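User: hey, got a sec? need Putative RND superfamily exporter protein folded
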Amino acid sequence: MDFTILAVVLLIGVGIPVRNKLIRKYREEKKKKDEANKDR
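Assistant: Yep! Here you go:
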């Protein structure tokens, strides 16, 4: 029981910030590509 709670807390505590970082990186890449395509 205690181990399950610990695992969930770690998953949420570590997983969400990592996911947000990946999403931010993806959005920046997409923005750069869109700007590059506008110049053509």
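Quick note: Residues 1-34 form one domain. Let me know if you need anything else on Putative RND superfamily exporter protein.
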